[in-house]
C-alpha cells in the first residue's frame, strides 16, 4: 500500500494505438482519482476495449505513456492492485465455480475468502456447478468474481453487464456499489447510457479513439445541449436556425422544427424577436442517450464534412 | 512459483476427470499391449513383448502430452482464459509452465502402468536400473512433445489444430517406430526422429546395457529445438488476440 494518497490512480498521457492506418486510440489523455466510479462511454469501435487492454498491459501503446498507481501498468497488474474483467476474458473449463474462484484467489497477495467473493458476485448457489455448463449471465458473474477474488484498489470492467438480464444487472450494480464503498476506484466501459448515468459519478465519452467529453452525467447532458425545443413553423431556413444563440443541432422536416440548444431561453427569445410566431412550442430535457448521440454525431460529422461546423463549434465552446 | 504450481494442480485435476484423456493415454496402450504383445518374435534384438512395452508406454505418454494439450491450448487461447490469467499477479509464463508440469506429472502413471504390465503380463525381467533408465527416457521424450504442443496450440485456431496435431503425431509415431520396428529405408529416415531414439535407447539398454550416444544427442537436439520454437511462438503471439 505504497500509493494511497491523492495522486491519480490511472493516468493516460497522450496515448495512441495504431493498427496500420487505423487509429484505434488517438492521443488519449486522462486521470482517474482515488475512489471515483468512472464510466468509459462510447459506441462499438470507439476504442474502449483497446484503451482498457493497454491499461492492463495486454497491449503496448504505439505512443504516449500510461501509469497506474505511479508505476507502469505491467507492474501494477502483477502486484495484484487491479482486478479486471474483460469481454475477451475466458474461464478454465472442467472445474467447478468454487474451484476456479479458489484457484484465482490463491494467485493474489491479498486473497479474499472464496465464499465471500462468490456471495458478492451472486454465484454462491452455483458454486458446485461446472464452469463450462453455465448460462451466459452466470458466466459473466463468474468472470466478475475472478476480478474481485483478491483485495484490490482499482476494478476495471469491460462491458460488465452484457448477457445479463435486467434483474441480474440491477443485482450486479448493487454488489458493485458495495465494493466501491470500500474506497476502491472503479473504471467500467459500457455502451449502455443508462448504466453510465446511474452507476458512474464521472463519464468519459470517447469516439474514434479520442476523448470528447469528461464530466458528471449532468455536465455531459449540458455539454451536448441540455434542452430540446420543437415547434411548427413555415418557411424557415436551416442556416438561419443554425445561427441562433446556443444552438447545437437543427432538424427541419416540412414545417416541423427540432432544435437542441445549450440555452433554450435565449434560442426561443431570438426566434420570437425576429418576428416569427411558431406554433405548438415544446421545450424538454435531453436524456443522456440523446446527449451522447449528439456528442458522438457531432464528432462523426466534424470528421466527415464541414456542413455542421457551427454546431460543432457550439459543442466545443 | 506457488501460483504456477496451484495452476498446474488444477490442470492435473482437470486431466484426471477427463475420460477421453484417460482412454487415450492409459486405456488404449494397455488394451493394445494385451492384444499384440504376445508374439514369438524379436525387434531391435529384444523380445517383441519388451519392444512393444516401450512402444506403448511412449505412445500413451506422448499422446497425453501432445494431442490433448494442442487442442486445449488452442481453445483456451481463443476463449480468453490465457488473457484472463495475464490479468492476475501470476508470472507471464505461468500458463505454459503449468501445462508442461501437468503433462509431465500425468505421463508418469501412463508410463508406469504399461511398464508394470510388461513386467507382470509380458514377463519381462531385468535389473531395476534398466527399468529406471527406460522410464526416464520415455519421460524426457514426453517433454519434447509437451513443448511442441505449446507451439502448435498457439499457432493454430481450434478448428484447424486437431488435424494438424494428429498428422504430426502419427508422423512421429509411425516414422519413429512406436508400433512396429523400423527397417530398410524407413529406418534411415526414422533415425532423425526423437521417437525412434526413445525406442532404440530403451531396447539397447535391455539388450546390451549401453546407451547409444547418438540417441541422447538427437533427443536433446529435438528438445532444444521445440522449446525454442515454443518460446518464440508464445512471445510472438503475446499481443495477438
- The gyration radius over C-alpha positions of chain A equals 23 Å
Mean pLDDT of chain B: 94
Provide the succession of SSEs of chain B: HHEEHHHHHHHH
Q: Strand pairing plus helix content of chain A: what structural class?
A: alpha/beta
Please, how many helices of chain B? 10
Strand content of chain B: under 5%
**Looking at the structure, what is the overall shape of chain B?**
globular
The interface involving the most residues is between: A-B, 31 and 25 residues
According to DSSP, the number of beta strands of chain B is: 2
Order of adjacent strands in the largest pleated sheet of chain B? 1-2
What is the assembly state of the chains in this entry?
Answer: heterodimer
What does the average pLDDT of chain A come to?
A: 85
Q: How are the strands of the biggest sheet of chain A laid out side by side?
A: 5-6-7-3-8-9
Order of helices and strands of chain A: EEEHEHEHHHEHEHEEHEHEEHEHH
Specify Rg of chain B, calculated over alpha carbons: 18 Å
What's the gist of this structure?
Chain A has helices at residues 48-55, 73-78, 97-105, 114-120, 136-147, 166-181, 193-199, 217-223, 238-242, 264-273, 288-304, 309-316; strands at 10-19, 22-32, 37-41, 63-68, 82-85, 154-158, 185-190, 202-207, 210-215, 227-232, 247-253, 256-261, 279-285.
List the helices and strands and how they pair.
The complex is a heterodimer of chains A (317) and B (241).
Chain A lengths: L9 E10 L2 E11 L4 E5 L6 H8 L7 E6 L4 H6 L3 E4 L11 H9 L8 H7 L15 H12 L6 E5 L7 H16 L3 E6 L2 H7 L2 E6 L2 E6 L1 H7 L3 E6 L5 H5 L4 E7 L2 E6 L2 H10 L5 E7 L2 H17 L4 H8 L1
Parallel strand pairs in A: 3-7, 3-8, 5-6, 6-7
Antiparallel strand pairs in A: 1-2, 1-4, 8-9, 10-12, 10-13, 11-12
Helix pairs in contact in A: 3-4, 8-11, 11-12
Chain B lengths: L1 H16 L1 H18 L5 E2 L2 E2 H32 L1 H6 L7 H27 L7 H28 L2 H18 L8 H7 L3 H14 L5 H24 L5
Antiparallel strand pairs in B: 1-2
Helix pairs in contact in B: 1-5, 2-3, 2-5, 3-5, 3-6, 3-7, 3-9, 5-6, 6-7, 6-9, 6-10, 9-10
Amino acid at each position: 500500500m505504497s500509493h494511497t494518497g491523492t495522486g491519480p490512480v490511472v493516468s493516460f498521457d497522450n496515448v495512441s494505438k495504431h493498427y496500420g492506418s487505423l487509429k484505434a486510440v488517438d492521443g488519449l489523455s486522462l486521470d482517474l482519482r482515488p475512489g471515483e466510479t468512472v464510466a468509459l462511454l462510447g459506441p462499438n469501435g470507439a476504442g474502449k476495449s483497446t484503451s482498457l487492454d493497454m491499461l492492463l498491459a495486454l497491449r503496448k501503446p504505439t505512443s504516449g505513456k500510461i501509469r497506474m498507481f505511479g508505476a507502469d501498468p505491467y507492474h501494477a497488474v502483477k502486484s495484484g492492485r487491479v482486478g479486471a474483467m474483460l469481454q475477451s476474458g475466458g474461464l478454465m473449463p472442467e472445474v467447478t465455480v468454487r474451484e476456479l474462484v479458489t484457484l484465482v484467489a490463491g494467485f493474489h497477495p491479498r486473497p479474499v475468502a472464496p465464499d465471500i467473493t462468490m456471495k458478492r458476485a451472486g454465484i454462491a448457489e452455483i458454486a458446485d456447478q461446472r464452469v463450462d455448463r453455465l448460462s451466459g449471465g452466470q458466466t459473466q458473474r463468474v468472470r466478475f468474481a475472478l476480478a474481485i477474488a483478491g483485495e484490490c484498489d482499482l476494478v476495471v470492467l469491460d462491458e460488465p453487464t452484457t448477457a445479463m438480464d435486467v434483474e441480474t444487472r440491477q443485482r450486479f450494480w448493487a454488489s458493485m456499489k458495495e465494493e466501491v464503498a470500500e474506497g476502491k476506484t472503479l473504471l467500467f466501459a459500457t455502451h449502455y447510457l443508462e448504466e453510465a448515468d446511474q452507476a458512474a459519478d464521472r463519464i468519459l465519452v470517447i469516439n474514434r479513439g479520442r476523448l470528447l467529453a469528461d464530466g458528471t452525467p449532468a455536465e455531459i447532458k449540458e455539454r451536448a445541449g441540455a434542452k430540446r425545443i420543437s415547434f411548427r413553423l413555415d418557411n424557415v431556413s436551416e442556416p438561419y436556425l443554425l445561427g441562433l444563440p446556443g444552438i447545437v443541432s437543427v432538424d427541419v422536416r416540412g414545417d416541423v422544427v427540432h432544435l437542441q440548444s445549450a440555452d433554450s431561453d435565449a434560442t426561443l427569445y431570438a426566434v420570437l424577436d425576429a418576428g416569427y410566431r411558431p406554433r405548438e412550442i415544446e421545450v424538454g430535457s435531453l436524456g443522456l442517450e440523446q446527449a451522447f448521440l449528439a456528442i458522438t454525431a457531432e464528432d462523426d460529422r466534424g470528421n466527415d464534412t464541414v456542413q455542421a461546423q457551427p454546431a460543432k463549434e457550439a459543442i466545443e465552446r | 512459483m506457488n501460483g504456477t504450481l496451484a495452476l498446474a494442480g488444477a490442470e492435473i485435476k482437470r486431466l484426471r476427470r477427463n475420460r477421453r484423456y484417460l482412454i487415450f493415454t492409459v486405456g488404449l496402450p494397455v488394451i493394445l499391449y494385451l492384444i499384440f504383445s504376445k508374439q514369438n518374435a524379436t525387434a531391435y534384438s529384444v523380445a517383441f513383448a519388451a519392444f512393444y512395452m516401450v512402444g506403448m508406454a511412449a505412445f500413451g505418454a506422448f499422446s497425453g502430452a501432445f494431442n490433448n494439450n494442442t487442442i486445449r491450448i488452442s481453445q483456451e487461447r481463443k476463449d480468453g482464459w490465457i488473457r484472463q490469467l495475464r490479468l492476475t499477479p501470476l508470472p507471464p509464463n505461468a500458463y505454459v509452465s503449468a501445462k508442461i508440469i501437468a503433462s509431465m506429472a500425468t505421463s508418469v502413471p501412463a508410463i508406469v502402468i504399461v511398464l508394470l504390465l510388461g513386467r507382470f503380463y509380458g514377463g519381462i525381467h531385468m535389473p531395476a536400473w534398466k527399468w529406471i533408465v527406460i522410464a526416464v527416457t520415455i519421460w524426457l521424450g514426453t517433454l519434447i512433445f509437451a513443448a511442441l504442443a505449446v507451439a502448435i496450440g498457439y499457432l493454430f485456431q481450434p478448428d484447424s489444430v486437431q488435424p494438424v496435431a494428429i498428422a504430426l503425431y502419427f508422423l512421429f509415431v509411425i516414422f519413429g517406430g512406436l508400433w512396429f520396428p523400423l527397417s530398410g529405408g524407413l529406418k534411415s529416415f526414422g533415425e532423425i526422429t526423437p521417437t525412434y531414439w526413445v525406442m532404440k535407447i530403451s531396447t539397447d539398454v535391455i539388450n546390451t546395457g549401453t546407451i547409444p550416444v547418438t540417441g541422447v544427442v538427437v533427443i536433446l537436439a529435438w528438445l532444444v529445438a521445440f522449446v525454442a520454437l515454443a518460446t518464440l511462438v508464445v512471445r510472438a503471439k503475446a499481443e495477438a488476440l
